[in-house]
């Protein structure tokens, strides 16, 4: 038992280190993502051009999210991890070669099909979109707008090769506890889009510059950088079409439900974009801008912590260490709840100032457009904790090499989500129905996944999770109230002054939340205090004392 405890402790340190790296990288990625949206809105406004870009992005992104985003890496990593950490390294590289080869062929075929059917797909996604005329009337979206959407989506389609093949490369890096290169990938991608948005008008290609930036950023960040790191680590690849390769059948068994199911986290944005087309011009863009702000805590806390824990969970499952497995899932869920509740409260309370600070520039500075974005963002905020725990629960299933049950649950909730959106549109409700439907579906999905995971791997520490959830909620209401009060004098500040004051206010709010959490004996506060004490600067300070 002493050996087991020591092993669990060492793995906890691995998760902690990976969490810090991935959280920092994801924080930078989200900042760049917001800067990307800021530049887009400033350069092109909130109107038909940006709506067309958002619809165009949805077409190629759907390929990635349906397959690579939810399936390839999560189906492949547990198998590669099992071989790699149980003295079967040759089998690990054989199955890696087979999966990479088949993925490259498969994605090339998908890109060809999407290219061929880009026009009808664009027409379907933009159905219902109308454009205001100078005289005050409206007209349906026409051939010129469809051509623009198709042009931009075709530019971005080859990027899916980088995303899908790159996801296999990145999965092997995670399995070997190499997290820096995977963490860099989204930052390079976002930087490419930002550069494209800035240079597009100068080069005479307008908003299509963002599509070219996305293509170049994906090729560099998601394919070239991971490939160079793998070569440096001494990885092995040989083209392999052998369907009898050890582990390949299990890979397809895990991948199948994900590919043929409809995971709500993967398709929610696509569905929202589809139904947003039935509302006034700019709604597609408003949904994207507000959703991306809401997604910041999800990426920084939910996804990064889930990915940090994933390879360790896969190793615990492969070595049949289920007590440690359940402790790790419980601990990760508690940490995510501890961070996501205050994020939601602060984002809700400071929504007007945050939207003004992030998007209120150039052609996007219209008070009406900013007000719509604030309105949708505040609704989205209510679902942040549910969105943040989903990646942890999903990785719990995938690390246990179980994909059928979570995908069935997610597919059912996706169908319910589509039904709610369709009902809202058919009853001519406001566009607010879209974020409300998203929140309801996300909350139900988190609840169902939690109980289903317990049936699969055994009982988690529900009491600890409930206590953390309750305390975090109460303290978050206090933190959100403090943030709201502090930001009231800032509503009319110049943006530069607003930025400085906002950073000051967030420091006060963060200190308040952390201080109260310590006084309430929350384990998560003690954990973060240990992490802070391990930082190089703090160590030197303690030694000097």
Polypeptide structure, described:
The protein has a two-stranded antiparallel ribbon with strand order 1-2. It contains 21 helices and 2 strands. It is mainly α and 545 residues long. The longest helix has 43 residues. Helix 2 packs antiparallel against helix 9 and helix 12 runs antiparallel to helix 15. The chain has one domain. The N terminus and C terminus are likely disordered. 82% of the residues lie in helices and 1% in strands.
List keywords for this structure.
single chain, 545 residues, mainly alpha, two-stranded antiparallel sheet, 1% strand, globular, disordered N terminus
Q: How many E strands? A: 2
Residue share in helix:
over 70%
Q: Could you say which structural class the secondary elements and strand pairing correspond to?
A: mainly alpha
| Tally of alpha and pi helices | 21
Please state the overall shape, judged from the principal axes of the Cα atoms: globular
Number of structural domains: 1
Give the topology string: H per helix, E per strand: HHHHEEHHHHHHHHHHHHHHHHH
Main β sheet profile: 2 strands, antiparallel
Oligomeric state of the chains in view:
single chain
For the largest beta sheet, what order do the strands appear in spatially? 1-2
Q: How are the SSEs placed, and which strands pair?
A:
Elements lengths: L1 H43 L3 H37 L4 H28 L1 H8 L4 E3 L5 E3 L2 H14 L2 H17 L4 H24 L4 H26 L14 H13 L3 H13 L6 H36 L3 H28 L1 H9 L7 H15 L2 H16 L4 H23 L6 H25 L4 H26 L7 H25 L3 H11 L2 H9 L1
Antiparallel strand pairs: 1-2
């Amino acid at each position: 038992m002493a050996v087991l405890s020591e092993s669990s402790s060492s793995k906890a340190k691995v998760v902690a280190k990976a969490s810090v790296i991935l959280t920092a990288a994801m924080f930078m990625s989200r900042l760049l993502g917001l800067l990307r949206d800021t530049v887009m809105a400033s350069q092109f406004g909130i109107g038909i051009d940006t709506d067309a870009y958002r619809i165009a992005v949805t077409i190629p992104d759907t390929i990635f999210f349906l397959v690579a985003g939810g399936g390839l890496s999560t189906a492949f990593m547990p198998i590669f991890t099992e071989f790699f950490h149980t003295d079967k390294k040759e089998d690990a590289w054989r199955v890696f070669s087979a999966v990479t080869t088949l993925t490259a062929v498969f994605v090339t075929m998908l890109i060809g099909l999407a290219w061929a059917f880009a026009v009808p797909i664009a027409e379907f996604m933009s159905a219902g979109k109308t454009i205001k005329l100078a005289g005050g009337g409206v007209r349906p979206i026409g051939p010129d707008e469809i051509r623009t959407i198709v042009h931009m989506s075709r530019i971005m389609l080859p990027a899916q090769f980088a995303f899908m093949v790159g996801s296999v490369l990145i999965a092997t890096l995670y399995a070997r506890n190499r997290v820096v290169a995977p963490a860099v990938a989204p930052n390079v991608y976002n930087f490419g889009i930002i550069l494209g948005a800035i240079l597009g008008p100068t080069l005479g290609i307008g908003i299509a510059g963002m599509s070219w930036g996305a293509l170049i950023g994906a090729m560099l960040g998601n394919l070239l950088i991971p490939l160079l790191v793998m070569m440096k680590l001494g990885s092995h690849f040989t083209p392999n079409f052998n369907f009898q390769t050890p582990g390949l059948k299990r890979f397809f068994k895990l991948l199948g439900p994900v590919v043929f199911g409809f995971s709500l986290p993967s398709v929610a944005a696509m569905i929202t974009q589809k139904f947003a087309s039935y509302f006034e011009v700019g709604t597609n863009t408003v949904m994207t801008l507000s959703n991306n702000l809401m997604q910041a805590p999800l990426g920084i806390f939910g996804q990064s912590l889930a990915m940090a824990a994933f390879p360790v969970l896969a190793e615990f499952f492969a070595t049949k260490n289920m007590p440690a497995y359940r402790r790790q899932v419980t601990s990760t869920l508690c940490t995510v709840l501890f961070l996501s509740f205050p994020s939601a409260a602060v984002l809700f309370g400071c929504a007007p100032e945050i939207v003004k600070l992030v998007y209120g520039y150039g052609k996007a500075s219209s008070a009406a457009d900013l007000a719509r974005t604030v309105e949708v963002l505040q609704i989205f905020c209510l679902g942040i904790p549910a969105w943040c725990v989903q990646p942890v629960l999903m990785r719990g299933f995938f690390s246990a090499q179980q994909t059928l049950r979570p995908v069935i649950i997610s597919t059912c909730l996706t169908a319910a989500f589509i039904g709610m959106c369709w009902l809202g549109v058919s009853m001519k409700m406001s566009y607010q129905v879209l974020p409300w439907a998203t929140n309801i579906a996300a909350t139900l999905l988190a609840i169902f996944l939690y109980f289903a995971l317990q049936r699969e791997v055994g009982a988690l520490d529900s009491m600890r999770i409930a206590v953390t959830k309750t305390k975090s909620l109460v303290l978050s209401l206090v933190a959100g109230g403090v943030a709201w009060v502090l930001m009231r004098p800032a509503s009319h500040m110049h943006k530069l002054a607003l930025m400085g004051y906002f950073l000051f206010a967030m420091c006060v709010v963060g200190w308040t939340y952390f201080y109260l959490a310590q006084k309430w004996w929350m384990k998560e506060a003690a954990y973060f205090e240990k992490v802070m004490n391990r930082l190089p600067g703090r160590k030197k300070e303690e030694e000097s004392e």
